[in-house]
C-alpha cells in the first residue's frame, strides 16, 4: 500500500506565496512521475505541474513563471512553490504519483489541501 500526504495549504492574499509539500510512504520500489493537480468548485481537476523521476518538468500555461515544482527523491517528497498567487489559483490541490511496486505500477492520490487566495 502506498500513501501521499499533502501539507502547506491555507489562506493567502493576492500576490502572496505558499509552498505545498507531499510526502510518499508505504511499500514501493520507486516513484516515477509526481505531479500537482487542482480542482476549483464546478471545474474539472486539472494538471498544474509535473516532474519526472529524472527532473523534467512541465507546467500548465497559467502558472508558468509563478509556480515551481521540485522533488527530493531521498525524502520521497514533491514540492510546489507558488508565488504571485492570484484569486483564480484558489482550489483544492492534489498530489499524484506513479509508484513502482512488487505488484506492478500503482497510481495514487493524496487527500488534497485547500489553497485560498483572497484579500
Could you explain the architecture of this structure?
- It is a single chain.
- With 119 residues, the protein is mainly β.
- It has no helices and eleven strands.
- The strands form two sheets. Strands 2, 4, 5, 6, 9, 10 and 11 form a seven-stranded mixed β-sheet that branches. A four-stranded antiparallel β-sheet has the order 1-3-8-7, with no helix packed on it.
- β4 and β5 (46-51) form a beta hairpin.
- The chain is elongated.
Q: What's the layout of helices and strands?
A:
Elements: E1 2-7, E2 10-12, E3 18-26, E4 30-39, E5 46-51, E6 57-59, E7 67-72, E8 77-82, E9 91-101, E10 104-109, E11 113-117
Summed up, what is this model?
This protein has 119 residues and is an all-beta fold.
